Amino acid sequence: MANYPSWIEEKDEVLWLTEDDREHLQISYRLKKVIFSEQSPIQHVMIVESDDFGRMLVLDGVVQTTAMDGYIYNEMITHVPLQLHPNPKNVLIIGGGDCGAAREATKYPSLTQIDMVEIDELVVKACKEHLQEVSGNLHDPRVNFIFTDGLAFVQEKEDAYDVIIVDSSDPVGPAEALFEYDFYQNLHKALKKDGILVCQSQSPIFQQAIVKQTRTHFEKLFTDTKTYTAIVPTYPGGMWSFTIGTKGNPIEPGRVHFKNVDTNYFNQGVFESCFTLPEFLNKLVPNHSHES
Ligand code: SAM
To answer: Whose CA is nearest to atom 19 of ligand 1?
Structure first.
């Protein structure tokens, strides 16, 4: 067997990838083959072909996105804020190396500038070449690829963006500081007066402390803040959360003019219902309604 990292093992001539980044839960994927495997200065980057989820991006042994369900996550983190903003022109994406979120953003003709600040150039290279089901080999001239740490990039920005999307990996390694209050404070400063910030806020099943902490940080900064969810089968527990904050208008999906976009998960019904939380989450992070 080729010299693969510890999370790849061969059993009875079959390759398996096992995510073991949680103490009491291991998830194993049967693989057809390993397509790309390389250590970057930041992390280990892999593209594998799995039996059930198709091609997958794996960073330091953790599955980030897959050909089977990556569109669900990328549509929900991108279309919700871009629909809520009345007339978005320039967008900042922090992370998002699989290019899925940027690809969804290019579906809005009103956008003139999409800055994608990704710390690891190798992730973008690998996804453009080997994971086109997600990246679409993105080459839209409005997308500026900036390979640097998002933390440092936003420190210099003020009143610059209509919408900011934090599509980060889990809060470990390079992404740990992307879940801290100081970072959100700088993002708030980088937004224009009616700007909107959204970030992925981990599993509402296994990581409720992070869902709650993110909400608390946002509520100190934004005029209106809500949590919404989506079903992403690849992610532990199958349910994922997003936290959104607005500097201007309250978050009222039922009141905005819906912009038609070509999607496979997101639609007007999902847009209006994704803020309706199951009771255990409503108790943790209640979404207060402004809609009378
Ligand atoms: N949807 C996936 C998830 O929820 O786990 C994440 C997708 S995307 C691949 C995450 C990206 O964030 C990775 O490409 C990673 O390199 C990037 N990233 C991590 N820390 C970063 C930082 N400090 N600045 C910019 N990008 C960062």
So the answer is: 175
